[in-house]
Amino acid sequence: MLKKDSDNPDIFGSALLDYHSNDYTEDITVISSLTENDEIPVPYLFRAYTEMPEIEQTALNLTVGKTLDIGACAGSHSLYLQEQGIDVLALDQSKGAIKVCSKRGVHKTSVSDILDFKEGTYDTLLLMMNGTGIFQRLEYTQNYLKHLKELLNDNGQILVDSSDISFMYEEEDGSYWRDASRDYYGEVTFQIKYKNQTSEAFDWLYLDFDSLEKESVQVGLKCEKILEGSHYEYLARLTKL
């Protein structure tokens, strides 16, 4: 989720609380610097394991030990892991999201930005639904990875998914265009809208696997591709070198 201050509305939290309270009337609108407006269907954020894409199911199946679910949203991943006997903590910046996690039965929760979170170490760090997005920009990636490494037990793992969005820049003649104002093509700026509220603009990073591997090695992490999807998405596992 995006970084918030007192003037920035908790869009996801509001939508999740409405849905959980049976007050679902509309979805979240996404305004992108790269493409046309899109929508996030709020019911999808409450999906069960059987409704999740293969990459998410694979990551959950690989999750072991004490786990931190980063960007937990409505808690769907945390709830499944909890049901499997995993000791999981749901973490999100959104107070509303964490309130919904608790209402749905997640036992352990925390409201915090990941860079401010320093409570213990973990066997698995889980970053799903384009988990590299929280890095914001390529130049910040190593700072985030260093912090995640500090939260990792010696034999622990970071499970993170992302997508290579270079295909979105391809022209009909096979050539590619680039946004000269961006340092890296996977950097996108979003705003999100729900009912009568609109968030401030925030940066979100789609990171191709080769770039993730390069940045990981620079901070002492091994990066392994676990699964590649049919539409440029992938699941990676990061471990200490």
Describe this entry's structure for a reader.
The model is unreliable at 1-5 (pLDDT under 50). Strand 1 and strand 2 (38-40) form a beta hairpin. Helices cover 24% and strands 29% of the residues. The strands form two sheets. The chain has a seven-stranded mixed beta sheet with strand order 5-4-3-6-7-12-11, with helices on both faces. It has one domain: Vaccinia Virus protein VP39 (Rossmann fold, 3-Layer(aba) Sandwich). The protein contains six helices and twelve strands. It has 241 residues and is α/β, with parallel strands linked by helices. It has helices at residues 11-20, 54-62, 76-83, 95-104, 141-150, 209-218; strands at 28-32, 38-40, 67-70, 88-92, 108-111, 122-127, 152-163, 187-194, 197-198, 202-205, 221-228, 233-240.
In short:
This protein is α/β, with parallel strands linked by helices and 241 residues long.
How much helical structure, as a percent, in the residues? Answer: 10-25%
Strand content of the residues, in percent? 25-35%
Number of strands: 12
- The first-to-last residue Cα distance is 29 Å
Structural domain count: 1
Based on secondary structure, the structural category is: alpha/beta
CATH class: Alpha Beta
Organism: Leeuwenhoekiella aequorea
Keywords: Methyltransferase, Transferase
Protein name: Methyltransferase family protein
GO molecular function, one term: S-adenosylmethionine-dependent methyltransferase activity
Distinctive features:
241 residues, five-stranded antiparallel sheet, seven-stranded mixed sheet, single chain, Rossmann fold, 6 helices, alpha/beta, globular, 29% strand, disordered N terminus, 24% helix
